[in-house]
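Q: Here's a chain of 171 amino acids. Please give me its 3D structure as tokens.
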Amino acid sequence: MASNRHLGRIIALQTLYEEELRREAADESFDLSVVLERNIRRYRDTLDDVAFIEQLVRGVSRQASQLDAALQPVAPEWPIDQIARMDRMVLRIGLYELQNEADVPPKVVINEAVELAKAFGGDNSSKFINGVLGTLLREKEAAAKKTPAKPAKKATAKKPAAKKPPKGKKS
């Protein structure tokens, strides 16, 4: 299943890349569903989890501006629109998965994003992606630790249990 999801992420990346490119070019004929179906159809025989790809593409597409807003503070010297398009797509996919895919361990999400960056990004893309997503994960984990737990129920006073003498010794 892991390699199947890796291929799914590649398909999602291709679809989201095309979406941004064509929308930027004001291509009014663009239809995300059509492009997604075309890209899935190419690999249909080797895919088991088409729902994962569809959820990933639609989720990232729908939440792109929120994802960008969350990414920007982590790389303040790189305005989001100046990050290479491929790196931006990989970051969006990785962040979306960190936020929405509880069944995928965060380290796997980051590793997959780094692998996508190595395969499709520039020379330093994988290090950049690893740094940004690693920072976001640490921030998420720190925030989770600071979240107050539900208040404990009031403890009822109990009489302390009597200590038992160590074995072999009589009291």
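Q: Can you summarize the key feature?
A: Residues 152-163 have pLDDT under 50 and may be disordered.
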